[in-house]
Each structure stands twice: as C-alpha cells, then as structure tokens.
Amino acid sequence: MTVYTWAGWISLLPLASVDITTIGYWTNNAQKIRLSQLFGSPCTLVYDLLMRSWGGAMSEAITLVSIIFSIYRFGWTNMGEGQIK
C-alpha cells in the first residue's frame, strides 16, 4: 500500500511501524511484543504529527502511554520469563 499512497520519504514511517509491530506480534514473548510497540508506535506518531492528523496523533500518544503503563505495571523482567497464554 505504501507504493500506492506514496507521498515522499515520510511514507516509510507507517510502513516501518506496521513491519516492526507485525514481527513483534509473531512472538509469544510479551517483552518482544512491547519492545516492537515501543519502536513502531513513535513512527506512527511522528507521521501523524507531520501530516497534521491530530486525532491519529492523540490516539498514538494514548497507545504509547498504555504501553509504558503496562511495562511499569507488570515489570520488564516479568514479561520475558514465560509465554503469553
């Protein structure tokens, strides 16, 4: 879809976000899932801000807060010990 909606190099940000988080979701390790979200979500946030999509930026900011809260709540090391059930 990036090819069809190409708007310059900035179009690679959502592609990177989707690629990174998709690879993270293939694992059963909560640490790797959260790590992929921590790298993918800012790409979308930057893209939304540059495109002036304020609703998308707000949604992505809430997502980032949620990810950080889950890491705080469960602890980073506790997420990596077992498989997600």
Outline the secondary-structure elements.
Blueprint: H1 12-25, H2 30-50, H3 54-74, H4 76-80
Structural summary, described in words:
By secondary structure, the protein is mainly alpha-helical. 72% of the residues lie in helices and 0% in strands. The chain has helices at 12-25, 30-50, 54-74, 76-80. Helix 1 runs antiparallel to helix 2 (30-50) and helix 2 runs antiparallel to helix 3. It is flat, with a radius of gyration of 14 Å.
List keywords for this structure.
72% helix, flat, 85 residues, single chain, mainly alpha
Determine the fraction of residues in helical runs and give it as a percent range.
Answer: over 70%
Number of strands: 0
Classification by helices and strands: mainly alpha
Poorly predicted ranges (pLDDT <50, ≥5 residues)? none
β-strand percent reads under 5%
Number of helices: 4
Cα(first) to Cα(last) distance is 33 Å
What's the order of the H and E elements?
HHHH
Largest sheet: none
Overall pLDDT: 86
**Which outline best applies?**
flat
Write a brief caption for the model.
The chain is mostly helical and 85 residues long. The chain has four helices and no strands.
